[in-house]
Amino acid sequence: MSLLCQFPMSQLLKNMSLATIPSEALNRLKDGTVLVLWGAGSSPEDVQRFSQELSAQKCSRIIVEHFERLILSNHPNSIFDVVLSNIFEPHTAKHSFELLSEIVRIMKTNGFIFGKEKSDRISADLKLAGFCNIIVEPSENSFSAQTPNFEVGSSSRLAFAKPTVWSLSDNLVDDQIELINEDDLLDENDLKKPEAETLRVCGTTGKRKACKDCSCGLAEELEAGQPVKPTTKSATSSCGSCYLGDAFRCASCPYLGMPAFKPGEKIQLSERQLNPDL
């Protein structure tokens, strides 16, 4: 069973045990609920004497609990204002993460804990358990911390700001709204129809950028800064049978590869067709 002690508040015993308690903890004792935790090796007489000192501080309630019985006691949530832990010699108790988690559960918001322990992990365990404003004094093997200003397990709805939307006043009528003429946003160059040559792209890159071995004239066009139109010239037949088709054309015939045509029909060949070696 847990050791539960309640002492009369009018009793005053002069002892310097309270001198080791931080002033912030002493200021919270009046009308507060205090939990005193003690461990193995501590003298029961020292625990009782210290509890009587606390009663002189006009605490509303003082509960003395052994470390091994704290979790089994199943205290309600948020009932203690101050927790004084392992302050009696020889300070053998260890504040494990499970123990600190139970302490933070039964403490009120903005509660204060003061304890003693020589450990390098006490600060990390206090943070993981949920304490804040942690102060560790290695020279005195003591620590103090506070609980947050919200209940353990509490939740709050997040308010996300609504996006700003441009809107016109409902009091305005159409005649009072000044609109921009969309035609004023265009100049003379925007109204000109582009020439087909300026829209030409490279067949290799698919962009208006000449490839390395450009042979379509796009490189010259981009270098000159203006479209280059393909030059054409008339071709004359030396054998007189070019119009009949490829079967009647010689190996160097400029019409090679073209369909047959009527005699005397004017056929225009590009510069590339007239110069196949380029």
TrEMBL record:
Q: Where is this motif: Cx2C motif 2?
A: 250-253
Where the record annotates domain Anamorsin N-terminal, the positions are 33-134
Query: What are the UniProt keywords, alphabetically?
Result: 2Fe-2S, 4Fe-4S, Cytoplasm, Iron, Iron-sulfur, Metal-binding, Mitochondrion
**Any one GO BP annotation for this protein:** iron-sulfur cluster assembly
* Cell compartments where the protein resides: Cytoplasm; Mitochondrion intermembrane space
Kindly list the cofactors needed.
[2Fe-2S] cluster; [4Fe-4S] cluster
Per UniProt, the short sequence motif Cx2C motif 1 occupies residue numbers 239-242
Annotated Pfam families: Anamorsin_N (PF20922), CIAPIN1 (PF05093)
**What does the subunit comment say?**
Monomer.
Q: What does this protein do?
A: Component of the cytosolic iron-sulfur (Fe-S) protein assembly (CIA) machinery. Required for the maturation of extramitochondrial Fe-S proteins. Part of an electron transfer chain functioning in an early step of cytosolic Fe-S biogenesis, facilitating the de novo assembly of a [4Fe-4S] cluster on the cytosolic Fe-S scaffold complex. Electrons are transferred from NADPH via a FAD- and FMN-containing diflavin oxidoreductase.
This protein's name = Anamorsin homolog
Encoding gene (name): EOG090X0FGQ
